[in-house]
Amino acid sequence: MGRASIVGAAETSVGKVREHNEDAHFIDPDLGIFAVCDGMGGHAAGEVASGIAVKVVREHWASDETLKVIDTWLEQGTIQARKAMLAAVNAGVIAAHDAIMAEATRDRTKGGMGTTIIGALVIGGDIVFAQCGDFSLQSHVRLRLCEVASAARQRERAGDSNL
Question: Could you tell me the residue ranges of all domains in the chain?
Fold first, then answer.
């Protein structure tokens, strides 16, 4: 099973309460990577934290190393390959946390900054989610996975009975 065909869109809005937007997002439908972060309102530099998180998660999840682990999972389908794939997803989020903490240590005016994150990787016919904080797909930030369909699902829609 290969990578899924995806159409994606992301939208963010300052809303009616705040004066500035602390959201950040990244989508790469070709790689099946989606991430939305919401800097925590009222905390120092929430927009900085969300920007760091998106940048670091994007770098990790789109890295050759992570893509190789994902391909191994798709090719082998073993429990060991699945654990390695999930560990690679988790490592991206942990790296984002570490980068935010490092920036807050470097610049004391940003102490206490934070962000929520929800990310999704489309891997074969599956979606793997990573989430930290109280943020969810139902949040005021809309992450729309407009179409997630594996090649088999596309054939099914077309009426192909040779699945």
Answer: 24-157
Angle at 141 between CA 136 and CA 146, to 5 degrees: 85
In 6-45, alpha helices (H): none
The per-residue b/e assignment along 123-154, b for 16 or more CB within 10 angstroms, e otherwise, is bbbbebebebeebeeeeebebebeebbbeeee
Is a pLDDT exceeding 60 seen at residue 138? Answer: no
Q: Is the CATH code 3.50.50.60 the one for domain 24-157?
A: no
Give the integer Cα–Cα distance in Å for 150 and 163. 12
Per-residue pLDDT of 56-90, as tens digits, reads 999 999 999 999 999 999 999 999 999 999 999 99
CA–CA dist 92, 53 (Å, integer):
9
Residue-level pLDDT at 143: 39
Residues 148-160 have pLDDT tens digits of: 334 444 555 566 5
Type of residue at 112: G
- DSSP symbol at 141: S
